[in-house]
Amino acid sequence: MHRRFIPATAVSIVFVLAASAASAEQIDVMNSGGFTAAYKTLQPRYEAASGDTLATAWGPSMGKAPEAIPNRLARGEPADVVIMVGYALDQLIAEGKVERASRTELADSRIGLVVRNGHPQPDISTVAALRQAMLQAESIAYSDSASGVYIERELLKKLDIEAAVKPKAHMVQKTPVAVMVAEGKYELGFQQVSEILPVQGATFVARLPESVQSITRFAAGIPVGARHPQAARRLLDFLASPQSRDAVTASGLDPVPAAAAH
After folding, report:
1. What's the count of helices (H) and strands (E) in the chain, helices before strands?
2. 150-156: long-range contacts (C-beta < 8 A, 24 or more apart)?
3. 131-154 pLDDT tens trace
4. Which of 38, 146, 222, 223 has its CA 20 to 30 A from that of 136?
């Protein structure tokens, strides 16, 4: 069962943060790519209101890269909060590495298409158009995190183009897909919209059609043995509060539906 989150009002959040400022802490946060843009907007707001300092380590929610959050935790790197893909967080909870009751829903992320600035923007408004765009592309890139895993393992099969597209498709590690596309290394890139929008030199084209879309839930939790669990709890409540919603939406993420947040 996911913890029940009762949204606090802006007044109560500010009161709690102000009250905690006298005993400010350094909160160690591990954050994955999809929530980065929203987090970077919210971090200074939270630090100013609470007095706490957020020390942030970055890495994907899964995969073999040493920066991946599960691998960081396995090495014993300090963490009071982890922000990551929901099902990857659930795996850490199942393994006893994150407190089950701390799981907090943050946002939903959808996959989009990116091209280099100035390059033609293919139509992907329908499933048929998406299929044609992928078949015609000279090269395609996707990430080694949730969005890329979905494209490689599921979407190509759904579109019945796996045999034709796999030889020219590349799973990119570490570097954001949009960066590689902006540098001209790939013609088309697919990644979570929130990871495309901040990249200079790349143009966000559109989201995948909803019928073949993969929605990734971002969630956060408190690792077992966290050094500052109370401060971590205050941060999670802030990130999931209504006053953080503007930053979440502006970053290309979607607020969690009310029914799912409870």
Report:
1. 13, 11
2. 150/111, 150/214, 151/111, 151/190, 154/214, 155/208, 155/212, 155/214
3. 999 999 999 999 988 889 999 999
4. 146
Residues 6+ apart with CB under 8 A from 157: none
Answer yes or no: are the C-beta atoms of 182 and 85 closer than 8 Å: no
How close are the terminal C-alpha atoms of the chain, in Å?
11
- The whole-number pLDDT of residue 34 equals 83
H helix or E strand, kind and range, residue 202: strand 202-207
Question: Hey, which residues does 255 pair with through a beta bridge?
Answer: 107
Contacts 24+ apart (CB under 8 A), 65-70: 65/144, 65/173, 65/174, 67/174, 69/30, 69/32, 70/97
CA distance 140 to 216: 21
Structure tokens at 162: 């796996």
CA distance 164 to 156: 9
What is the token pair recorded at 54? 């957020």
Neighbours of 259 (CB within 10 A): 6
Identify each DSSP E strand in 47-139 by its residue range: 53-58, 81-85, 104-109, 111-116
Dist CA 123 CA 246 (whole Å):
29
Dig out the tokens for 146 from the structure: 């949730």
Residues 100, 43: Cα–Cα separation, whole Å? 24
Residues 75-86 have a mean pLDDT of 96
Instruction: Categorize the per-residue pLDDT at 257 as very low, low, confident or very high, splitting at 50, 70 and 90.
Output: confident
Give the pair of three-digit tokens for residue 250: 């502006």
